[in-house]
Amino acid sequence: MKSFRGMTALVTGASSGLGSEFARQLAQEVSQLLITSRRAERLHALTEELQKQSPHIRVFSIPADLSCQKGREILTDWLAAEKTEVDILINNAGCGDYGPFEECPFERVRSLLELNIVSLTYLTRLVLPDMLKKKRGIIINIGSIVGRKPLPTCAAYSGSKSYVHAFSEALRWEIEGSGVTLTVIAPGPLETEFFMKASRKGTDTKPFVPPFMWVPLKKVVHESLMAAKAGKAFYVPGFYTRIASFLHYLTPSSLLRYIYQLILPIKCRNNSSKDEKITCSLD
Ligand SMILES: NC(=O)c1ccc[n+]([C@@H]2O[C@H](COP(=O)([O-])OP(=O)(O)OC[C@H]3O[C@@H](n4cnc5c(N)ncnc54)[C@H](OP(=O)(O)O)[C@@H]3O)[C@@H](O)[C@H]2O)c1
Q1: Which CDD domains match (predicted)?
Q2: 182-194 confidence digits (pLDDT tens)
Q3: Would you say 187 and 164 are in contact if contact means Cβ atoms under 8 Å apart?
Q4: Cβ of 20 below 6 Å from ligand 1
Q5: 90 and 9 in contact (C-beta within 8 Å)?
Q6: Which residues are bridge partners to 181 per DSSP?
Q7: Ligand 1 atom closest to Cα of 91?
Q8: Chain mean pLDDT for the chain
Q9: DSSP H or E segment with residue 141
Q10: 276 close to ligand 1 (CB < 6 Angstrom)
Q11: Overall average pLDDT of the 238-245 stretch
């Protein structure tokens, strides 16, 4: 089991949800913590909180918009200027979108793909060479259970998370035995700002899933860090979520398509006339 002692960790998307919790739990172990996201005031507040709780570590907030190259380069420049090498990368920043795909403004789709795919790939490419040179490093990429089997009503999001899974699995093979490990975490639904932002109208509509599938953030992060320390390739936090995700994964797509037609709230295109606007009752 690896230890995080003496390491420098970079957590993306640390201003809320899973990312804030990763920062809180890592602050108890690492010696330096770098946190990033767009909302500077949230990052500064978290920095103060963590610095009070763990005065022996150094915490830096680096506000940046990771959905554009300029924003990503803020991080690159900061690391170069401070001569800092990252030992633990938590590629957590991500956003969702739900509703009929063709009604989504393309700018929203582009920004989702830039954040969920390009930024995760960019940061991995940025830190990996130094990790390989030092023969030590831990990368955690946050996927999703819908990255294993796609979900209609969130096509671009599912697709982006499938990329996270495929990219991470291939890279994991490439770096096997190098001293650097890569773990993909596939959470189920979480109580964060995620669903409110994924809704095109900003309404906080939660998906209809059984209550036992909502795993507390503390548990998700604790289990994820344990999985990374143990060098696991893939992990679904939460016992029931793990079982549900496994069954979902094993279900043939032809059967899933049939089930989705019955349960998902988007009106089926075949039932609507050509000119009728397709609506989503989730919004
Ligand atoms: N919530 C769920 O049900 C669920 C399920 C499976 C997987 N996940 C994944 O878990 C990860 C964390 O999501 P969460 O649930 O914690 O949601 P969240 O509370 O909305 O957190 C998302 C984080 O990403 C940051 N972010 C968003 N756009 C950004 C941008 N353009 N540049 C930099 N940072 C940006 C946000 O900060 P700023 O707004 O300050 O930039 C925030 O800190 C995501 O990868 C998500 O796909 C979530």
Answers
A1: SDR_c (cd05233)
A2: 999 999 999 999 9
A3: no
A4: no
A5: yes
A6: 138
A7: 45
A8: 92
A9: strand 137-142
A10: no
A11: 95
At 52-63, the pLDDT tens digits run: 999 999 999 999
pLDDT, tens digit, 9 for 90 and up, residues 106-138: 999 999 999 999 999 999 999 999 999 999 999
Q: What is the pLDDT of residues 34-76, one digit of tens each?
A: 999 999 999 999 999 999 999 999 999 999 999 999 999 999 9
Mutate to test the pocket of ligand 1, among 95, 117, 157, 220 (most ligand atoms within 8 A of CB): 95
Catalytic-labelled residue, pool 157, 163, 249, 260: 157
CA-CA-CA-CA torsion for 150, 152, 155, 159, nearest 10 degrees? Answer: 0
Domain ranges of the chain: 8-251
The CATH fold of domain 8-251: Rossmann fold (3.40.50)
pLDDT at 266: 60
Whether the Cβ atoms of residue 259 and residue 177 lie closer than 8 Å to each other: no
In the chain, helix, strand, coil percent, each to 5? 50, 15, 35
260 is catalytic: no
Q: How far is the CA of 43 from the centre of ligand 1 (A)?
A: 14
Helix (H) or strand (E) holding 198: helix 194-198
How far apart are the CA of 254 and the centre of ligand 1, in A?
31
Q: Number of C-alpha atoms within 13 angstroms, CB side, residue 249?
A: 14
* Best residue among 92, 153, 235 to mutate for probing ligand 1, ranked by most atoms within 8 Å of CB: 92
Whole-number Å distance, alpha carbon 194 to ligand 1 midpoint, is 6
